Structure formats: C-alpha cells, structure tokens
C-alpha cells in the first residue's frame, strides 16, 4: 500500500505527530482542508474508500472508551484507545466498511496531547486492570512505520501499574515495536484465519504464515503474544483449513508465551451485507447460514457456532492446555456447550482475562 | 441552487399573480407539442382512458400551462396528461395558458407543476423519483428532506435513497414499480442481480403476485444461493423445482408463492431447516395434552425452550400439569442437533 496524498484537516498541522508524519512522507502530495468535512453520500461513496490518502485529523471525541458490547452476549471488557480509523487492508468482512462514512486513512494526531487526561483517568482507578487495545477501528501496526504509535504508546503504558496494551494486527509490520526498548505491559496479537479464507478475504494482508513468523520474532524478542480467530468462517473444508493454521501455530509459536486466544464466528450488522456485495464481488464470506442474533447482528445458526468453537478448542487444547481461550460476543449457553464452562457474564469474562494478565506477569496482582 | 423554498411561496402562490397569468390564453396547434414528456413532466405509467373520456365529454376544464422555449418549441409546464388526451382525441388546436413572459424560472415552473399535480392525485414511485431528481437540480438534499418529503408522501430519508436507486432501471422494471407490483425496497437487492437474470426474477414476482416482503426474501434467497453455488439465477430458477411451480394447477397462486419461498429457504438454510424439522418431529412424538405447546425461540438462538399452556381455570391447569408430568417422551426434548 502506498500513500499517494496527505490531507491535513483544520488545525492538525500544529501537532508533533503531523510534523513527524510529514517528515517521513516528504515526497507525498500534501493538501490542507479547512472547514467542516463533507460526509460521503451514497452517490459518491468510493469503492476503494480512498485508502491511498492519509488524513491528519484532530479527533474531538473521547479517545478511551469501553468496547460497546451488548447485553445479550458476553463481552471481554476491553477498552478501546481510538488512535485513528480505517486501515490500508481491504478485508471483505470488515465492519469499518459500514461504520464509517468518512473517507481515507485517518490518524488522530492529537492523541499525544490527550495522553495526560487518559493518564489521569487510568490513575483514578488504581484497583482496576485496564486492558487497552488500539486495533478496533484500525489495524494497530499497519501504519506504525508512519505514525510510530508503538513507540509512543509503549512508553506511555510502562509508567502505569494497572494497564496492559494490546497491539492487534494482521501485518508483520513489527519493526517499530522491536526497536522500542519496552516489553512489559505490551501484548502483540494477530488475527488469524484458515489460509484459504485469509487468501480469499483478507485482501492486502500478509499471509497467515508471515503473521506467525512475525509472532515468533516478537516472542524471541521478549513479547507476550495473543491470537484472535475472528471471524471464524463456516465453509465446506473449514476443519482442514483451520487445522492448517493450528499446524503453523505449532511450527512458529511457543504456546507458553501466549496470553490468550479468542474465537468469534463471522457476524455482521444487516446493512453490511449489501456493502460487502457491492465492494467484494468475488467474496464467499456471506455464504453461510446466518440468522438474526439477539443483538440484531447476523450470526451463524447456533449449532454451527458451537461445532466450530468446540472443534478449535479440542485441537488447541492438544497443543497447550493453558492458552487463555475465550469467546468474543457469545452467549453463556454457547460458552457452556462449546467450552464446558462459562464466565456467566461480561464481568466474569473480564475477571478471567485480568487473571491471565496477572498470570503472565504483565501486571502484578492489584490489591 | 436555492436554499430557501419560501421564495416560491411568494412568486407562485400569490393569488393575484396567478390570476393575472391566467389571462394569457393562447391557442396552440397540437403538432407544436413535442412527443417527449419534457422538462417539467412528472407523469409516468398513467392510464389516459379516464382523462380522455372526461375531455371528450365536457372539454378541457383546466387549461394546461405552457411556455415557448428559446428554440421556439413548446414546453409543457402543467397538463401533460391533458395534452396527451387532447392529441388522442385528434384535437387540432389546444387552448393553453402561456407563461413565456411571466418571468418565472425553471425552478418556479417545476414547483408550479408539482402543486398542480399534488392537489389532484398521488404520485407513484417512479414519479416520486422523477420529481426528486428534478428538484435536485435546484435544491439541496436537506431542503428536499425538510420541505418536499412529507409533501410527496415519502416517509423517510431512506425511502429517498431507495427512490434514487431507480436511476438506470429498464423500462420494464420501471413499469412494474409504477404499477405497484415491485417494491422499491427490493430494488437495492435487484441492483446486485446480473441484468440478464432480471427477467426471470420479475417473471416469478409478477406471476406469483409476491407481496413486498416475499419479494425481498425471494431475491435475497435466490441471490445468496446463486453466489454460493456459482450458478446463474436464471439456471437455478429454470430448474424443474422452481419453473414448474409457475403452472402448478394443484395449488392456487398464494400457495405457489409460499411453496417457492419454502423450497428456496430449504436450499438456503439446509442445516437450520433440518433442525426445525427434527424439533417439530421430536415434539410430535411427545404425548402432550392438546392445550399445551412447546416452542423454540426464533432460530433456536435463545437458551431455553418455551412451554405454553392454555387453560380455563385452576382445576384445568392442575390437570394439565399432572398430565404433563407423566407425558411420554417429554424427557427426550433436547437440542435437535445433539440427537
């Protein structure tokens, strides 16, 4: 992916990160945009979402927010650090296609400026463990060579006793992380899929093998890693497909230095279906038996989900019993029928994952 | 582009101005009018029989408004249907009101025609689309939302988005929409269908009189199946299972429509349908009292099954509960996929 244009919105130019980015991309055409941003209308919504343009934006909303979750399904209690939106990859199933009606890759250059107030907030609850991630509205590392998020945020979390930061990615863009002196309180995690699905649907993303080679490198360099099988896709040869990924995991990754492995079956808001059909003519991501879930999202018929989770759990258990497996946005019933136990509710899952953080010595036990 | 519609309330609707304009009566030769509907026309798919018969009986009660344009031909401002009827009746001369020198802009004249139409009839969806498209030449979308949406009988912005998707449709599809045979909500889905598959889809929709909800299900199912199986919609629907339904004399049309959707659903959701059937069979095998029903949640997504008892009084309820505790096979009720 090449950045062909930089747009500096409103007063974004004065921030240090803007200077740093402009310095790195000296040869890229730069434009300034003043006034209110015009939202995309359906008429001019570009098929490529203008991913070759980098917008430097002053974000006026809250930088740190809890993952919204829904009351019908169990949520992990993650905190989202909003560093930017959109990502250079073009995965067919990406929810960002439906959530964002604003164009381009957007970097919130006032993040550094806002870290003080985030710090105050985190310090005001010293007894609470904050599991923070930046990979919800963008890929945590895809633009790291330009934005240097890993350097800025790794240094920030080192000073906090009650925080771990997860960089969630599909890339092998780990140079920034490796060159940072910080290892503590950092989790580097990868989204995984079967090689077939990754090849067909993770458009523009490195292969599963490249991701796992990057994970190996990170483990060797002292990082704790995690994995997210999300979205699990039900297709004819799904068992063989996911077993191939497990073989690659075994080949490259030391299971003892894995903090958690999550699983979540393909789900989407109904409006995304038509966007996917429009933007990804060859996709088979919508082929499965999707029903209306209790939260209004489309998800696989329950026994399909249970079968997929049970299968993966069984094979991951053979690799290593203590992987910190968990399900993303599933009901207590599906937990029980797939894993044989349930955290009962979102607080239960949150406690379970906090314990994983303590167990892997990323944070000392907080009293 | 005008941002304030109030401007038109003054120019057009002021009764004095209108009365003065009505004096500019001209007699125009029928051949002077172009065949094409023209700049201000908002009529599509209408039946001219009634208006032709009315004019034949009592003449032209309300004169059309026209103007002579720069190229010397006549633009019809209001009364396209009336002029069409007069021409069908072979009138040589048509009396009109000439607004050429009224100092009104194209936007003024469009609004004039809109008011003229809105008083006497409802617009079909193709006409609504034509009007919105014309209005967009002069007004911002937010102005259209605020001022014209309720006026046109459009209930939401989403409906405007759907209406604008009519752009580029074939005349055949437009005809179905104008007649109310095809839902505009189905349009978004039809845009995902290949052009050469549209005729067979509309054949099923119109011949089986699918209602708007059925249309959406039908298009969703057949498109999903076609993509999953890598087969054209046409070859799927031309298969025996479906095409023979169109002429199946053993069922009436609503039954055929239901059978079509049932067959498609089985193909689209084989695992779900198999489990629904297995559950129904499981319940049938239980010796339940007739006033008791056991149901699953929609798509089995909820964790529990539901027991429903209807009863007249406590005595009857107690009897039912007693019968239930001894009902044969009740302990076998379980998730059908675990069987």
Kindly describe this structure:
The complex is a heterodimer of chains A (367) and B (339). By secondary structure, chain A is α/β, with parallel strands linked by helices. Chain A is built from 13 helices and 16 strands. In chain A, the strands form three sheets. Chain A has an eight-stranded mixed beta sheet with strand order 4-5-8-9-10-11-12-16, with helices on both faces. In chain A, strands 2-1-3-7-6 form a five-stranded mixed beta sheet, with no helix packed on it. In chain A, helix 8 runs parallel beside helix 9 and helix 11 packs across helix 12. Chain A is globular. Chain B is 50% helix and 9% strand. Chain B has 339 residues and is of the alpha+beta class. In chain B, helix 12 runs parallel beside helix 15. The N terminus of chain B is likely disordered. In chain B, 27% of the residues are buried. The longest helix of chain B is centred in the middle third of the chain and has 18 residues. In chain B, the strands form two sheets. In chain B, strands 1-4-2-3 form a four-stranded mixed beta sheet. Chain B has a two-stranded antiparallel sheet with strand order 5-6. Classes of the chains: A alpha/beta (367), B alpha+beta (339). At the A-B interface, helix 10 and helix 11 of A face helix 12 and helix 16 of B.
SSE blueprint and pairings:
The complex is a heterodimer of chains A (367) and B (339).
Chain A: E1 5-9, H1 16-24, E2 29-33, E3 53-57, E4 64-66, E5 79-81, E6 84-85, H2 96-99, E7 105-108, H3 111-123, E8 130-133, H4 144-147, H5 149-158, E9 163-169, H6 175-179, E10 186-192, H7 195-201, H8 208-220, E11 224-232, H9 238-252, E12 258-265, E13 267-268, H10 270-279, E14 290-292, E15 298-300, H11 302-319, E16 325-327, H12 332-339, H13 346-359
Parallel strand pairs in A: 1-2, 1-3, 3-7, 5-8, 8-9, 9-10, 10-11, 11-12, 12-16
Antiparallel strand pairs in A: 4-5, 6-7, 13-15, 14-15
Chain B: H1 6-11, H2 15-21, E1 25-29, H3 49-58, E2 65-68, E3 74-78, H4 80-88, E4 93-98, H5 106-118, H6 125-135, H7 141-152, H8 157-164, H9 171-178, H10 184-190, H11 198-207, H12 212-229, H13 233-237, H14 240-243, H15 253-268, H16 270-284, E5 292-296, E6 305-309, H17 314-325
Parallel strand pairs in B: 2-4
Antiparallel strand pairs in B: 1-4, 2-3, 5-6
Helix pairs in contact in B: 3-4, 10-12, 12-15, 15-16
């Amino acid at each position: 992916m090449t950045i062909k244009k930089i747009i500096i919105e409103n007063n974004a130019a004065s921030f240090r990160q803007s200077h740093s980015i402009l310095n790195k991309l000296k040869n890229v055409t730069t434009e300034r945009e003043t006034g209110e941003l015009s939202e995309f209308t359906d008429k001019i919504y570009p098929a490529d979402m203008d991913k070759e343009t980098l917008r430097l934006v002053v974000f006026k909303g809250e930088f740190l927010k809890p993952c919204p979750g829904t009351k019908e399904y169990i949520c992990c209690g993650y905190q989202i650090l909003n560093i930017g939106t959109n990502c250079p990859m073009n995965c067919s199933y990406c929810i960002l296609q439906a959530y964002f009606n604003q164009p381009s890759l957007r970097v919130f250059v006032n993040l550094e400026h806002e870290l003080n107030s985030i710090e105050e907030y985190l310090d005001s609850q010293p007894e609470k463990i904050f599991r923070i991630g930046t990979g919800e509205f963008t890929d945590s590392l895809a633009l790291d060579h330009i934005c240097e998020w890993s350097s800025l945020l790794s240094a920030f979390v080192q000073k906090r006793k009650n925080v771990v930061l997860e960089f969630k990615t599909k890339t092998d863009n780990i140079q920034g992380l490796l060159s940072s002196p910080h290892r503590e309180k950092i989790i580097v995690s990868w989204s995984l899929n079967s090689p077939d699905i990754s090849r067909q649907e993770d458009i523009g993303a490195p292969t599963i093998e490249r991701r796992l080679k990057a994970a190996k490198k990170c483990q060797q360099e002292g990082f704790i890693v995690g994995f997210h099988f999300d979205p699990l896709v039900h297709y004819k040869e799904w068992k063989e497909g996911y077993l191939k990924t497990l073989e690659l995991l075994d080949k490259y990754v030391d299971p003892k230095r894995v903090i958690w492995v999550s699983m979540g079956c393909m789900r989407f808001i109904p409006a995304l279906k038509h966007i996917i059909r429009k933007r990804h003519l060859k996709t088979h991501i919508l082929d499965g038996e999707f029903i209306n879930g209790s939260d209004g999202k489309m998800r696989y018929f329950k026994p399909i989900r249970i079968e997929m989770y049970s299968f993966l759990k069984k094979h991951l258990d053979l690799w290593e019993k203590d992987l910190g497996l968990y399900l993303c946005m599933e009901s207590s019933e599906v937990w029980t029928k797939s894993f044989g136990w349930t955290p009962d509710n979102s607080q239960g899952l949150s406690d379970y994952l906090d314990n994983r953080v303590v167990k892997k010595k990323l944070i000392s036990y907080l009293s | 582009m005008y941002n304030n519609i109030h401007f038109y309330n003054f120019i057009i609707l002021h009764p004095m101005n209108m009365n003065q304009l009505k004096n500019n009566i001209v007699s125009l030769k029928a051949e002077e009018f172009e065949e094409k509907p023209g700049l201000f026309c908002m009529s599509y798919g209408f039946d001219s029989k009634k208006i032709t018969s009315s004019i034949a009986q009592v003449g032209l009660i309300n004169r059309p408004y026209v103007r002579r344009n720069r190229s010397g031909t006549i633009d019809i401002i209001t009364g396209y249907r009336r002029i069409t009827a007069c021409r069908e009746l072979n009138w040589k001369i048509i009396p009109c009101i000439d607004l050429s020198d009224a100092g009104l802009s194209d936007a003024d004249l469009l609004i004039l025609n809109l008011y003229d139409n809105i008083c006497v009839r409802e617009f079909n969806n193709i006409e609504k689309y034509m009007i919105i498209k014309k209005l967009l030449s002069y007004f911002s979308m937010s102005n259209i939302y605020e001022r014209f949406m309720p006026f046109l009988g459009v209930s939401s912005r989403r409906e405007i988005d759907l209406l604008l998707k009519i752009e580029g449709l074939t005349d055949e599809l437009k005809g179905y929409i104008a007649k109310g045979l095809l839902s505009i909500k189905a349009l978004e889905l039809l845009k995902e269908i290949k052009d050469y598959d549209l005729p067979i889809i509309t054949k099923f929709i119109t011949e089986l009189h699918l209602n708007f909800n059925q249309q959406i299900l039908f298009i969703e199912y057949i498109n999903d199946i076609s993509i999953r199986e890598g087969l054209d919609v046409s070859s799927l629907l031309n298969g025996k299972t479906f095409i023979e339904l169109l002429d199946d004399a053993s069922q009436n049309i609503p039954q055929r429509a239901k059978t079509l959707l049932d067959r498609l659903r089985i193909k689209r959701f084989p695992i779900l349908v198999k489990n629904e059937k297995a559950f129904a069979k499981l319940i049938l095998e239980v010796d339940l009292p007739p006033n008791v029903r056991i149901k699953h949640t929609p798509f089995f997504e909820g964790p529990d099954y539901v027991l429903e008892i209807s009863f007249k009084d406590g005595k009857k309820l107690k009897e039912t509960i007693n019968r239930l505790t001894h009902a044969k096979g009740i302990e076998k009720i379980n998730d059908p996929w675990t069987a």
